[in-house]
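Q: Could you write out the predicted structure for this multi-component system? I'm mainly interested in how the pieces pack against one another.
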Amino acid sequence: MPFEITKKIVEQVTAYIDAKNDVALDKLFCEMHHADIAEILDEISFDRAVYIIKLLDSEKTSEVLMDVDDDVREKILKKLSAKEIAEEIDELDTDDAADIIAELPEAKKEAVMSEIEDVEHAKDIVELLRYDEDSAGGLMAKELVKANENWTIVQCVRELRKQASEVTRVHSIYVVDDSDKLKGRLSLKDLLMAPARAHISDFYIPKVDFVRVNDTSEDVANIMRKYDLSAIPVVDELGVLVGRITIDDVVDIIKEEADKDYQMAAGLTEDVEAGDSIVQLTKARLPWLILGLFGGIGAAAIMAGYENIIKDHAVLFFFTPLIAAMAGNVGVQSSAIIVQGLANNDVKGSIANRLWKELLLAIVNGIILAILLFIYTYATGGDYKVSLAISISLFSVIIMAGIIGTFIPLFLDKRGIDPAIATGPFITTSNDIFGILIYFLIARLILGF
Amino acid sequence: MPFEITKKIVEQVTAYIDAKNDVALDKLFCEMHHADIAEILDEISFDRAVYIIKLLDSEKTSEVLMDVDDDVREKILKKLSAKEIAEEIDELDTDDAADIIAELPEAKKEAVMSEIEDVEHAKDIVELLRYDEDSAGGLMAKELVKANENWTIVQCVRELRKQASEVTRVHSIYVVDDSDKLKGRLSLKDLLMAPARAHISDFYIPKVDFVRVNDTSEDVANIMRKYDLSAIPVVDELGVLVGRITIDDVVDIIKEEADKDYQMAAGLTEDVEAGDSIVQLTKARLPWLILGLFGGIGAAAIMAGYENIIKDHAVLFFFTPLIAAMAGNVGVQSSAIIVQGLANNDVKGSIANRLWKELLLAIVNGIILAILLFIYTYATGGDYKVSLAISISLFSVIIMAGIIGTFIPLFLDKRGIDPAIATGPFITTSNDIFGILIYFLIARLILGF
């Protein structure tokens, strides 16, 4: 069932375009889902993609435009006239339309808006552009089906037929009072099951989950996921129904959020994909590697400060990669648990409580690992005191790494900074330096150099 | 709007339970959403949670049971009799019911099944238990609304009223032929808009996305996300409609998959949360740390082999943490891009192509980083030849780490193993050892010791 974009299809499309065989292209694409067409457009050259967009109906291309990669869309929009973009916008739901308009340069924005035929549609888009793109207002669409609480079922069905033709997918009918304030909801199922003469006020569900226009998109995603909602109404500061958000948009947010955290943990600054260019990939990767390089240089500088003991205690230097690696691993583990907990809203209790727990955990893990390391170093002929120094250092470094890994993301979160930046190379690098510093300090204490 | 579980609510619930104040508890929970009750149950002691489950209506508690943490549910189910569990099962949709049954020990499974009152419901559950839990069959529910293509609209609405009372949320009506084969779909909206005497066959949508019972849950998630579906029908090998999957279940899968990859990258073997016990957290973290310990010991052993040169080339030893860290960082970056690309289905081209691209990328990054390191070591009074040896080693290690980080996940994926295990500590540790080995080999080549 899942449609696969094969090399053959891409080659065929390319051949048709180069031969300007519009009939064959029309036939090929007419039955195809817009998400599949978008995948093909991502694969072919940019000029060919523009050719397809200009060839196909805007009813179809508008959806395709929403599905292509961001960079492909940006390039295509540059090649389209204001009038051509306005035609696409006319076909889109307000939320998607506003997203496209927001991506345009200022001058083109106005040109496109003035070309939009449907004045109501244009007004709705302008309203949506006011909201922050990461808020409920920025996510919502104006298309929804609403009913006045005083209507009868028959009235409601009649009105619904009018309204529903505008709305792609009807999840719920939102019930409002005379001043458009959200009162409750009604499912299509309930409407179908209700006696024709009943009034909506008699049987709508007054308990309805909603979000406010200024709630963050993360909050919206958490509520919809927690309560298993497929759509949620959005109200303004006065409780007036102003839009609705559907789960498909939220699924993308959940996926993007999770992907972003993962990339941060792996040391990738920008949203990159395997297919991106070497320049894009380098931009995403190099900054973190340079950070790592500085960390390594810092560690080397610390070790250089102890050069005078290298004759007597060479073995101490052999274990610096181990100490650095363990500090990094423990730090990443601790911070990842906190970052994920913060994202899922289940980090409970105070910072002090969390640190206390992490401390206990680090003590448990630290003791086990320190004993293992002591056994190895001592058994392989190490000096008793040196083995002890290395093991105790490892124990201390694990505790430090756990505490830093827990504290930094909690601290960043409290300050309103995305805690995910605290995972990955950032925590690894700082723990490398601190780890090696602590290691030599403790070794000096025990071995007295 | 989002409901917050405050410390106060938890304390109040605890006090009510301890005073056996059932009236107050009933009143408190009657208006509360099951997902919120579940959050409270996760917070209070286990005996108190059982008390609440036994107190409230099974109509409510069945949903609560689905929402509590897995380990809390397991404990609660142990305390309930087969009859009590069967009452909960009776209230649940077949997909949730099957999930609960699947978690029970074999003996209790049969006892519970024999207590279920609704025979049809029990039959459906037994059918669902046959499917792998990670397949479309394991995800689907039997509850759906279907219509025969030969019905009139009036017939359809009448039948629908009967069927829909069983189904929590109606997304689409699935149209089937006389042998129950899936033919197409019909939205409730279309049904509302259609003339009463029309036949379904005249205007249902024959193009309908579907999955087969044996498709993996990952495939299901990808299709629903790509095509923005809120529900998808499931057919068996003969094309017969056997169930449907709704987006809320898939949202959880998407989130879990992403969380799992993230945890793997961070070195956490089991699905742990910030709130888990120290024993659970240790189980998830310690194995990776022990792996890291072995890696560090390996690196130390390699360095011990070069002890004789430590007098002349002490500086080489100072840069081992840097080399190990860079090898780890590059490896994690490369593998994360591949793992995420595989999960999102956008790694195109052959393994050879991917390796070639990674090689170019590693050369670009490697040259820049090696030059930076050379400038630092030479400028801080380093010997020309030693600086060159360290920089060239760094360059080589970056290339090796990039290739290993790209190859391992692609290789695992080809062999049907989850490539996510190749990220995090696994790749870091192996790259640490290889990195230090290469470093000393190259240094020996250049410095001739």
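A: Regarding packing and overall arrangement: The mean pLDDT of chain A is 88.
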